[in-house]
Fold:
Amino acid sequence: MVSRRCKMLVQEEFSALGLHPLSVELGVVETTEKITKQQLKELNKNLKRSGLEILDSRASILLEKIKNVIVDMVHYSDESPVKDYSAHLSKTLHYDYTYLSNFFSHTHGMTIQHFIITHKIERAKELIMYDELTLTQIAYLLQYGSVQHLSTQFKKVTGLTPSFFKTLKKKHRIELENL
Structure:
């Protein structure tokens, strides 16, 4: 689950089956009841219709946890920006960063750094579209050392400069679920 909308959908699906989730967080649902095999099968079928799935292997769960921490850091954190992504991931997930990095690259097919950059650029697109912050403020918020660094990465990922992107009528954003 990447977005708050996904969390709401999961909660609704649990409720539709008569289950009472105590909490629905990114990647984890706690319920008051024990889920039967039939309920699990029905839940999985209903979630798949919405493009979601139940993760049951340790590897897929860890992969989702890594992605969720990154998405939360870049898109939803109300705290001051994280300066050291590797230390934050290690501290949050209780694994050595080298292990997380190797695991992520092996299972996801891209480096954690590339995944972070992709999300930072999508967040930059969103902030540019809102037109409430300057590029300097966006660069600071997303932990870029300068506007030039943000602009260089933005152009490398999108093929456009941030200024040109701002002038487009139809903004080219990718849904978080599809990153």
Observations:
- The chain has nine helices and two strands.
- The chain has a mean pLDDT of 86.
